[in-house]
Structures are given as C-alpha cells and as structure tokens.
Amino acid sequence: MIRRKWLPIATCAYMGAYMSMPFSITFEAIAGALPDKNLWGKPSCDVNQAEILRKHELRKLALVKETTDNAKIKAQADYAAILQKHKADLQSCRDRQPIQTQATWLRLYANDAKAGVLEDVFDRIVNRGYNQVFIEVFYDGRVLLPVSDNPTPWRSVMAEAVKEGSVSADYDLWQKAVKLGKERGIKVYGWAFTMNFGYGYSEVRGKASALALNGKGENSIANTNFNRQQVANGRAFYEDAYEVDHLFIDPYSPIARNDLISAVKALMQRNPDGMVFDYVRYPTNATGALIDDVKQLWIYGQSSRSTLLNSIGDRHVRALMELYLANGAVTGSDVIATEQKLADAMRVKPNPIPNPSQVAITTNNFLWNMATNHAYQGVLNFVSAVTTPLQQNNIPIGTVFFPQGNDRQGNKVAPKMQPWERFPSFMERHPMTYALCADGKCVAEQVAEVLQQSAPNTLVCPVLAGTWGQSFDGHPSYEIQTQAIKARSPQINCISHFVYSWMEPDSDRLRKAGTATGLESPTLPN
User: Fold this and answer.
1) Under a CB-based contact definition with an 8 Å cutoff, are residues 152 and 263 in contact?
2) pLDDT tier at 19 (50, 70, 90 boundaries)?
C-alpha cells in the first residue's frame, strides 16, 4: 500500500502503519494524523447500541474487573454466548449483502497482551460489521513472533516489552489474534512486507549481498533521513519511515528468499486464514516519475546482475549488456569494439557493421527491454517463491499493490516495477485504490481498471482509504466510495478499509501509548 506510516506515533502503515498512525497516501504506508471525530457512519451488518453495551459490560466482568469467582464464571459464560450470537448474526447478514467480505487493516501493540484489550479491539471490529482483518505480521524490520520462538533474522515486535518484563518471552500475540478472530467469525489474514525488509535488516551480519542495488552501487537506504546512530540496534522500528528509509532486497538473492520463507513458515504455523503480501515491488523515486535509465533499475545486486548476464547465451549480447549496465548506454564505437574483440578471441575476421550508430540505437532498445523484463521477472519469481509454503498448505494468498505500479509509456516504466497484472490468477488482488475525488468515481475507475486486467476467477478486493460518515485526508467517506464502486463494477463483493486506527482513533492512541485497559467506553452508533 502506499506505505502508510504510523508514527510513534507512527511506523509504517498501510501504509507503513502501526506503532504509528496513518499518513497521507503517497508513499507506502505512512499514516499520520487521526480523524478529529469518531463517527459511526452507515456500515452494513453493524451491531445495535444495546447489544454493544451489553457485550462491553460482560467483557469487563469476564476479563478485566475484579469480582467474585461465581460472578466471573457467569460473566465469562454470558460473554461467550453473546460472542457466538454476534458471530452467527454477522455471518448471516454478510451472506445477504452485496459486499459479502468487509475487511479492515490492523496493527497490534504490546499493550494488546493485557487481558481484555485485544478482545475489545476485535469486538469493535465486529460491531461495525467486519468479517475479516489484515494484521501486520512482518513490517518495518520486525516480525510478530514470540521472542523465544523466532527463527528469523528480524527482531520480534515484542522484544522491548519482553525486556521490560511486561510480557514473557514466549508470549504469542499473533496466535492470540488468530484465536480471537475465529471465535468471532472474523477471518484473520497476516499482512507482510515482501521486498522491503526494513531498515533493521541492514544491521544483520552477512546480508549485504542480499540487498538491491542501483547503477550507482547504492542500496535503497543510501539517502536515508534517519540519524544512523540514533536508530541503531532496532530503534528504527519506532521512527517515521519514508521511502528512503525502507531497505529493499535483491529478489534474485537466495539469502533474501530463504530469510522471508523462514518468516512465512513460522507465521503460518499459527493457522491464519490467509496471508497478503505488500511491497511486492522495487523502491520508487521522489516524484514517482517514469524512468528510462538502466542505472535507475535495482538490478545491480550481486545475484540479480549475475542472473541477468548468465541468462544471455549469445556472447555478443552478453558483452554489450555488460557495457550497457556499466555505462548506461552503448555507442556505435562500443558495437564495433565488441565485434572486434570477440572476433579476435575466436581468431576470425570481424563482421562489417555498415551503420554502427543505428545499430547502437537498436541495441540500446533491445538491452533496455531485456533489463526491464529481468527486473519484472525478479518480482514475480520472488513472490512465487516466498509464498510456496502457503501454496503447499492451501492457505489463501493475496498481493497488495498500487494500480499504477505497472505503468508503462513507450520505453518508460514506473519505478516500482510492480507487474501485478502478471501475478498468478489464484492470488487475491488487493489494489490500493486511493485516488482523490469528492464523489468516489475516480476510485471506482481504478477498481474497474484492475478488474479489466484480472482473470474472471481472481478475487479483486479493493482497499479504500478513509473512514465512515465523513471525508478524511482528502478521501470521501467509505459509504460514498462503496456506492461509486458498486455502480461501476457490481460484481465486486469484497472491500477493505484502511485503516482501523482511522475508525477507532481513541483505541489506537491508547494502545499505542500502552495505557489501554479494556475498560474504555465502546464506540456507539451516532
């Protein structure tokens, strides 16, 4: 998603999103200010006020408040009963709705380990009629695994909480979230970064060769805004990360591939209902302008470069590609010199080249197409490889992308180089349709464009930015956007809303600050 950042107030969000809050929507995940008002709006399948209040009181008695043993046992039974009722009501209602899947995106905090706090979050999600949630499980260089059961090179999201003694090293917040969701009839998907391994990965020994490099030999954090000393030892996780602070890997690197596979395998052991993969792309530039310079491509990493050159069987083409990568273009003189050099090596007479300048133009176009195809293929190969464990276990897989990430105009390409139209048809597509217009029709048009480039059997579930009952950050309300989408593409039956913190800003603030108790008043229809 563009990445959404969440400030610590913020980290990555949606788009970068969670110790954080979401920001504007131009760079992946940056989530900033929250709405001033918390409006209920007109969600479908929501719970009525009386039932919300009753469930809230039962949860407090069952999980949080001190009371007699008999009273607590009864409250726990009554709370379980109302959860089951709301689960059945939710399923029955959503089955009758044009939008049968209504999802939201959520970041968890260490505070959610406190009894009653995460339960409150899931109850709020059900109250608004949601039956699916995407939870960040790998983002900003952290993984949502227990400190004592983390086979990956990344720090656990819970590392500081364990160090402070507020949770045990074996506490599994991700597993708890999956359990709570299923108890309420909510499908729980993991939401993971893909080619963005987080700034902290740069601090892990032996990973330098796994990084994506451009034609200047730079990795993607060469121009980071971070003070490197201040964010050392994992502290980058608590800073506002923008595009120049995200560390992207070389998708052809076996080190990077195996590292992410280790995380996917560990996360899937908690039996989520599915996983979606974000940042399935290369870094973008400051303006998002299309590019046509090979040195702007992130194919100079050790594995990517060698894979490209080794894939070229013709010695003439391989030699010219080496010059092209080194210099950014080949000239007529390069064409002549290459022919002469290879002829000398073979002890034969060089072939005459009548118009070397014209040959150079044709050669540059050919090599550019070859280089860009190699870059695109790296993305496709990587997402296929890291999702293999999920495929083998029949766990649903989705990708998160910007509709414009695959743009091409003539010889120019979008710097993200995100070939989402070529992702396997069995993978769900979650396009971040964040266009800005008052009536939502521009959003509906983005959705229609994705549908046009997707197979009929591929689930397209657009991601909408904003909140209920009001415009926010330039986005019209969810109601207006949904109405426009259904008018343009009535076959859409799945929509997700970015992001929980924009719907429940007080809940997010308190949990992020570590002060939520589970006793907070519920949000009610207004």
Assistant:
1) yes
2) very low
Helix (H, G, I), strand (E, B) or coil at 22: coil
Note the pLDDT tens digit of each residue in 253-293.
999 999 999 999 999 999 999 999 999 999 999 998 999 99
3-state SS, residue 463 = strand
Burial grade of 421 (CB within 10 A; 0-12, 13-18, 19 or more): middle
pTM, to two decimals: 0.93
Q: How far apart are CA 146 and CA 162, in angstroms?
A: 9
Q: What is the DSSP code string of 399-421?
A: EEE-GGGG-EETTEE-TT---GG
Looking at every residue in the chain, the average pLDDT score rounds to: 93
Of 332, 387, 377, 339, nearest to 355 by C-alpha is: 332
Angle of helix 315-327 versus helix 356-386 axis, rounded to 10? 90
The residues near 498 (Cβ < 8 Å, ≥ 6 apart) are 1, 4, 14, 15, 22, 104, 105, 432, 463, 464, 465, 466
Q: How far is CA 342 from CA 139, 306, 318, 491, in A?
A: 48, 20, 11, 58
Token couple for 229: 């000393």
Residue with tokens 């200010």: 33
For residues 324 and 322, what is the distance between their CA atoms, to the nearest angstrom? 5
- Residue 244 per-residue DSSP state: G
Q: What are phi and psi of 90, to 5 degrees?
A: -65, -50
| Rounded Cα–Cα distance for residues 14 and 21 (Å) | 9
Q: Which of 297, 290, 244 is nearest to 405 (CA)?
A: 290
Integer Cα distance of 84 and 99 in angstroms: 22
Residue 524 is classified by DSSP as: -
Q: Look at residues 394, 467, 471 and name the one whose alpha carbon lies nearest to residue 426.
A: 394
